[in-house]
Write a structure and sequence with these properties.
By secondary structure, the chain is an alpha/beta fold. The chain has 14 helices and 21 strands. A hairpin with a 2-residue loop joins strand 19 and strand 20. Helix 7 packs parallel to helix 8. The chain starts with a strand and ends in a 23-residue tail after the last strand. Bound molecules: N-(aminocarbonyl)-beta-alanine (URP) and zinc ion (2 copies). N-(aminocarbonyl)-beta-alanine binds next to loops. One of its GO terms (cellular component) is cytosol.
Length: 465
Amino acid sequence: MSLLIKNGEIVTADARYKADIYIEDETITMIGQDMPVPAGAEVIDATGKLVFPGFIDPHVHVYLPFMATFAKDTHATASKAALIGGTTTFIEMCCPSRGEDLMEGYELWKSKAEGNSACDYTFHMGVSKFDDKTEEQLREIVADGITSFKVFLAYKNFFGVEDDELYKTLTLAKELGVIVTAHCENAALVAELQQQLLGEGKTGPEYHEVSRPVEVEAEGTNRFATFLEVTGAKGYVVHLSCQPALKAAVAAKERGVDITIESVIPHFILDKTYAERPGVEGAKHVMSPPLREKSNQQALWRALEAGLIDTVGTDHCPFDVQQKHLGDGDFTKIPNGIPAIEDRVNLLWTYGVSRGGLDIHRFVDVASTKAAKLFGLFPRKGAVAVGSDADLVIYDPSYRGVISASTHSVNNDYSGFEGMEIDGRPEVVTVRGRVAVREGKFVGEEGRGRLLRRSTSSTPEKALV
Ligand SMILES: NC(=O)NCCC(=O)O
Ligand SMILES: [Zn+2]
Ligand SMILES: [Zn+2]
């Protein structure tokens, strides 16, 4: 099976040029000018289009068991929405809770994804406790090709770890050469503030942000950085939302701590006024860390442009309107999360590159290449190069559209970005050489996605066949 993409403009994290791309089976085998059409090859004309490496979402939740319910998506629905939005690989948080066995959780997560995802995927392994079995289990999981961990400094007694457990996790990660991703908020402060607010009769979604102020996130970020500094481990702050946390992470970078920063698309596009809408309208926009004052949004854009923020993910975690009603009369019971997997690339393109000051190469880097490098997928993923997987996004920058739950593919009955304009969309998307999206519609093979087993350095991972 072969495919020739002709006349497109290839844009990567560090290059931009017009060329044809020839794909045999799953791999890019030639890139060149005016290539003749080999017998039997399907030709896709990409005239006037940009050709990007498949985008990578480094922070996704699928069917997450959380806050007395489960996030809406399955691997089948999330992966199709991802592909329509140009994401060809996602990294899911594998999150067994504190009461569950780590290895059983890992096997359960793998079994849910296997044969169901249309795009490629891998996991960050959640560490929600550190008991007698944890070290051995984590060694086994790393040997199985899962070379990044996830810790929560929030969600006390559920996903959250205590400081001694954080220390043990980082010490092991350092030994194994594994990167640790972290949700950074001070869990105890959040719990106290939540009780105080509820006691004062402040029960609506507008109090979610008040219960998790920027200081709570800055403290968590600073604490994580301190633990990285002491252990020498490599860390990655997830879904950073505000200026004080950014300051803490950048200060750590400047003093040589091995720390990288992710923010997520809702924090660039939405501010806290969305969550201050009355009742369930506000609840639709409740996530953690919460949507912030608009001034933080400007700071995130500037930091992204300047290279201080390394990646942009989604923290995709959809709950429908009925689920959001679980928090009627008590904001602490609103399931935290917003659907975004389908919209990340188009929103970042529109409000970053098309209408903002984000350089097109930075766009590719933060939405694809950097995550591939950080998480051991490069150059198999995140690149347009001979030998790389033929995961490509043929992007139409002349497309004009509006995001709406009435037209989106994600399995949720509302969109957090309802009514927002987009200035482009993926026209054709390929995953390992097969067309998965045409004219914005999923045409791929369900369940073809592969678990990407990774090594601990930035060398190509071991693929599970
Ligand atoms: N972010 C969020 O609100 N929900 C998903 C869980 C998490 O990432 O903290
Ligand atoms: Zn989180
Ligand atoms: Zn998350």
